[in-house]
Structures are given as structure tokens and as C-alpha cells.
Write a structure and sequence with these properties.
This protein is α/β, with parallel strands linked by helices and 287 residues long. It is 40% helix and 16% strand. It has a four-stranded parallel beta sheet. A four-stranded parallel beta sheet has the order 6-5-7-8. It has a four-stranded parallel beta sheet with strand order 10-9-11-12, sandwiched between helices. Helix 1 runs parallel beside helix 13. It is globular, with a radius of gyration of 20 Å.
């Protein structure tokens, strides 16, 4: 998709400001196309977080959900972190409440509270084990025989192979975006593109995941498509990932199901908000 003349001008202004100020711009795969174009680095939530923590730039502007900003501040509290939008929540991360956690722990006092880093800080503070897609298998393998209360939901542990040890499953802890894709949607896409490999996000419905050739988070899907010798892929994830893959690997072909998976929260950041935050930083103004 070609950017409009207005967007091209904004893109140039944002890049000139960032270069002048020494600001590194990082963006999640699910952000708008214009944000991925202006960014110095595009990746999954935990890749962006790691990049920000290890960045040597004087300041970092992060385009993503608020839990990413919180994770960066927790690991690197002195970082100059610029946030163009502070109202981008992850609906899945906020589906679980403190009351839910306390009730589950009361029912299963022997269970370890295991939390994905995307949950709110107050809930993350209760976690006995903190995980991400990158660390989940290694961390939970050190607890043989334990049962788990998985926050915000069981999907990450299911994908990592620990699903049978999850207790207190709650039906409302699902990603409302990835839940839109049905198994029949992937089956129809496979019928249209029989020679394509299907890669699905682990937050999709379990019955859909059984039909996929590869299941991972957005970063894992990106690596799979980059490293695979195959030339055609059906991507079942938020639409921004397919958009990124199409631009990053122009010699390969990427298809989606008929149901577009679109996260409105992750599309709130635009070039105007990026420019406004950079100009505010240039003036020396605080958040």
C-alpha cells in the first residue's frame, strides 16, 4: 500500500527529527504501515522490549502497547523513553482482575502463579514466575510436577506444552482479535492456496491451531517465514504482521483468511502523534 503525499511528508519530518535528536524509533508488527516504515526496528513485543533495554541511543520512542513501556521501565528505569500514545492497552492483558487471581489462588493454594509480562503491574507483582514466549519453556521446566495459574490466560502455556498443568481456566481470557478466526476460515484459505504453509498465532482458537503447519508468536512467525525455503504462506495473525512480511520478503507470497484480524488499539499511533512527541522532546518538555 502506497503512502499518500501527506504521509510521505510526515514520514520525512519524523525521520529528520528522530535523526537530529538521536532518537531510535521502535515499533510492534501490529502498528500502522506508516509507523513500521518510519521505525528503525520492527518486531514482536518482547523483541522491541529487548531492543529498547539494550539500545545505545540517547532516547527511544516506542510504538506499541502500554505493557511494553512498563516492561522497558522495569528493566531500564533510567532510559529516556518517549511514548507517542499512552492509552494503548492490550484487551487480553486486562481481562483478568486481582479478584480473579485471589480467587484462583484460594481454590488452588499449591499452584504457582505464572504471568505473561503483558499483564498490568499490580497483577505481575503477584506472579511467582514471570514468562514470555522466549522464556516460558525454560522457566517452567524448572518446576517439575507443579500446577499453574496462568495469567492472563492459558494460551502461552498451552503452546509451550504445559497446558495440562494449568488450573482455574477462565473462558473470558481470550484475545478478541485472534479469536475471530475460525478453523473453517483457515480450511477455506488452504483450499485456495494448497501449496502454502499455514502459520498461526498461538492466541488463535485451539481448533484452528491444529490445522496450522506452524504456531508461534508474531516474532516466531516472522522468523519462520524468513528462514523457510517455502515461497507461499497463509498467515493467521493480526493484519499488521502480514503487511510487514509482504514488505520485508517481496519474493515470497503471503495470504490471509477471509476474516481480517485487526486490532484497533494497536492502530491508534500515527505519524502525527510520533512527530508531536519528538517535537515535545526537542523542546525539553516532560511527559
Amino acid at each position: 500500500m502506497a503512502l499518500t503525499d501527506k504521509k510521505v511528508a510526515q514520514l520525512r519530518q519524523a525521520r529528520e527529527l528522530a535523526n537530529h535528536l538521536g532518537v531510535e524509533i521502535l515499533a510492534h508488527f501490529f502498528q500502522r504501515e506508516e509507523i513500521k516504515v518510519v521505525a528503525d526496528f520492527v518486531g514482536g513485543a518482547y523483541e522491541v522490549t529487548d531492543r529498547a533495554v539494550n539500545s545505545r541511543a540517547p532516547a527511544i520512542l516506542v510504538c506499541g502497547a502500554i505493557f511494553m513501556h512498563e516492561a522497558i521501565r522495569a528493566r531500564r528505569p533510567t532510559a529516556k523513553l518517549l511514548i507517542p500514545r499512552s492509552d494503548i492497552s492490550c484487551p487480553l492483558a486486562t481481562t483478568v482482575s486481582l479478584e480473579d487471581v485471589q480467587a484462583a489462588k484460594h481454590l488452588y493454594p499449591e499452584a504457582l502463579i505464572v504471568a505473561d509480562l503483558k499483564v498490568p503491574p499490580a497483577i505481575l507483582a503477584l506472579a511467582e514466575v514471570k514468562i514470555s514466549p522466549k522464556t516460558v519453556r525454560a522457566k517452567l521446566s524448572t518446576h517439575p510436577g507443579a500446577v499453574f495459574i496462568a495469567l492472563p490466560g492459558p494460551q502461552l502455556l498451552d503452546w509451550a506444552g504445559f497446558g495440562e498443568r494449568v488450573v482455574a481456566r477462565q473462558p473470558h481470557t481470550v484475545c478478541q482479535v485472534h479469536e475471530l478466526a475460525q478453523a473453517d476460515d483457515l480450511a477455506r484459505a488452504r483450499a485456495k492456496h494448497p501449496d502454502a504453509l499455514a502459520a498461526a498465532h498461538f492466541l488463535c482458537r485451539p481448533e484452528l491451531l491444529t490445522l496450522a503447519d506452524f504456531v508461534s508468536d508474531s516474532a516466531g512467525i516472522n522468523r519462520f517465514c524468513a528462514e523457510s525455503q517455502a515461497g507461499k504462506f497463509i498467515i493467521v495473525s493480526e493484519a499488521g504482521l502480514t503487511e510487514y512480511l509482504t514488505a520485508a520478503w517481496p519474493k515470497k507470497h503471503f495470504y490471509e483468511t477471509e476474516v481480517e484480524l485487526f486490532c484497533p488499539n494497536m492502530k491508534l499511533t500515527n505519524l502525527k502523534s510520533v512527530i508531536a512527541r519528538l517535537e515535545k522532546y526537542e523542546r525539553g518538555e516532560a511527559e
